[in-house]
Please model this.
Amino acid sequence: MSRKWIMVSAICFTILACKKTPKDQVILPINTMKLAMWDMMRADEWYTQTTIKDTLNKRKKENIQLYEQVFAIHGTTRKQFYNSYLYYETHPKEFKVLMDSIYAYTEREKAPPIPPPVKIPKSQR
Model:
């Protein structure tokens, strides 16, 4: 009797352990997180600049709408983003990789584009 009970318990435990995690619990990969955080920083900067210039225009919660647009663009939810952010904050090595990749991305965005090569006619060579 106890053997059957142990076997049934083991099977139930295995089935419960193999259940899928909800979409909100999935941690975003570093590349997705990098792009989402970059867009959120840009949205924050735009919001800050426009509210400083136009103090009469009350832009309450417009930054939250901007965040929701960023989440929609990157195919994530607010909860999934913040769960991922908390995960990266509690794992310093991964967080450093994330921050370094955001920094490298911003440097690439700031760099002027490389002009295409100029074709020199054969007569001038």
